[in-house]
Write a structure and sequence with these properties.
Radius of gyration: 23 Å
CATH class of the largest domain: Alpha Beta
Number of domains: 2
Largest sheet: 8 strands, mixed
Number of strands: 20
Number of helices: 15
Strand content: 15-25%
Helix content: 25-40%
Distance between the termini: 25 Å
């Protein structure tokens, strides 16, 4: 059995940020557990054609690690390079355990530590446990009749098979969300025919991308210039919350802009009607792309809306609801992730053998989206209601680290063994979150999205300004916690 002061589950940006913050706090007795055979998370895993970030790169980076980005919206290869640079810069590679797929974790109340069991048979003991597996790590593939009969190739965008040559093939993409909006323009010119199965259309806004010149990249290497650009972008994006929550006229103005963009890019009225959402913009994730609509307008691309969706799959292709059979060579599942009810994929047993799945049976919730009663010394990075639809998720992750490190430092400084949020503090916080959520477009915009759990509660999003969340996490509130 291996023993560490802190264990981090997941090696993406959340895990890397936790590790660097521990090192800066003088805590080096930690280990990162990664289920895959490589270090790095999202931007090392998601290698599908067209993969890129949809937040400006200078903001979609960690505040302590500036980078000379080549363009405003970085593509996957550059994001992977940034990830690998972080790993090398802070010496994280020697602190990771690869192939450590967590099977279950349990709290030992007598010893005040967590036991972490992996599928490979290894067991780890730790005082503090940080789950940084991320909300977009459990791919979802719908179950259609006959799927096992299909003789062609299938894979999820999360696990793109680069050994398969899709060029000149008949391809079906199931889904029309953020990943599909990047894959479709990337492969449409190269395939014989592309069938896109859309359950509901998304709102799309143009992507204001640009390449950075040599001088601009040099400026990005200067910390003061980098910091200034980050804050300019941050405050520009932060104003979007006004539309999402506080101002119906503002959101209708954005929606009219999106409608004009749709009309300009899709001249065919029939296709344009299929692509026009029937819910308020922002209720679902807004796509940012200037190439998605033109790709769908190509002669070799067919958009199938819900009424012409998939009824079943057979050995040679797809049978649609309206009775058509489509011969395809490849089916790509661009069907998203279990980002709400599946925030943590493994069983977690807390005090008195309380099971996290039972606590979250109605809907996932946590104090600051990070900690829970009956689960001492457990912290969830990007937990319930920490998602942010208008700015960089990394800003929220860094804010969470303020709270997590404050908890760990407080326990260690006082010579204690555990910290646990009080039940009434979690209830008060959760009530506030869902009270504020009622005013947002995510709750009242007329759609059902992956932001919501099966209960109908909006679980993925924080209902306000990101700086409000930052202020909430800036300092530990001892009165909200039990220290022992």
């Amino acid at each position: 059995m291996h023993t560490y002061a802190v264990l981090i589950i997941g090696s993406g940006f959340g895990g890397q940020c936790a590790a660097v913050n521990l090192l800066k706090a003088g805590i080096d007795d930690f280990r990162i557990l990664e289920r895959r055979d490589f270090f790095g998370g999202t931007w090392c895993q998601n290698t599908y054609p067209g993969a890129a970030v949809d937040v400006p790169s200078p903001l979609y980076s960690l505040s302590f690690a500036p980078y000379r980005w080549s363009q405003m919206f970085a593509e996957q290869a550059e994001l992977r390079h940034y990830t690998e640079q972080l790993i090398e810069q802070f010496g994280l590679r020697e602190r990771v355990e690869l192939g450590a797929d967590v099977e279950r974790v349990e709290w030992d109340e007598a010893e005040k530590h967590w036991l972490v069991h992996t599928r490979a048979g290894g067991t780890f003991r730790t005082q503090f446990l940080i789950n940084a597996s991320g909300p977009l790590s459990q791919p979802v593939i719908p179950n259609f009749p006959g799927m096992d009969r299909f003789q062609g190739k299938t894979f999820h965008t999360n696990n793109w098979d680069h050994s398969y040559d899709y060029r000149g093939k008949r391809v079906a993409i199931v889904g029309s969300g953020a990943s599909a909006a990047q894959v479709i323009p990337a492969i449409a010119p190269q395939v014989e025919h592309l069938h896109v199965f859309q359950r509901t259309p998304h709102w799309v806004l143009p992507r204001a991308d640009r390449k950075f010149g040599r001088f601009q990249r040099w400026l990005l290497g200067l910390k003061p210039a980098y910091k200034l650009l980050r804050w300019l972008i941050y405050w520009q994006f932060e104003t979007r919350v006004i539309a999402f929550k506080y101002s119906r006229p503002a959101i209708h103005l954005v929606q009219r802009h999106a409608l004009r963009f749709l009309k300009r890019q899709v001249p065919d009225p029939v296709l344009r009607q299929k692509l026009t959402p029937d819910f308020t913009i922002g209720c679902k994730r807004v796509l940012v792309s200037s190439t998605y609509y033109p790709a769908l307008s190509r002669a070799n691309v067919t958009l199938h809306s819900r009424e012409h969706g998939i009824a079943s799959i057979d050995d040679s292709g797809i049978n649609t609801v309206d009775g058509e059979h489509l011969d395809v060579d490849l089916i790509v599942w661009s069907t998203g992730y279990d980002a709400t009810d599946g925030v943590i994929s493994y069983p977690v047993s807390g005090k008195s053998a309380v099971q996290l799945r039972d606590v979250w049976a109605e809907y996932p919730r946590a104090y600051l989206g990070t900690s829970l009663p009956d689960f001492p010394n457990l912290f969830i990075v990007t937990g319930p209601n920490t998602g942010i639809g208008h700015t960089s998720a990394l800003f929220i992750i860094e804010s969470q680290m303020n709270y997590i490190l404050d908890c760990i430092r407080t326990v260690r400084a006082k010579g204690l063994r555990s910290i646990e949020v009080r039940r009434d503090a979690e209830r008060t916080y959760t009530a506030m979150i869902h009270r504020e959520m009622q005013r947002t477009v995510w709750k009242s915009g007329g759609c059902h999205s992956w932001y919501q759990s099966k209960s109908g509660h909006v679980i993925a999003m924080f209902p306000g300004f990101s700086f409000s969340y930052h202020l909430l996490t800036r300092a530990l509130k001892p009165a909200d916690h039990i220290l022992s």
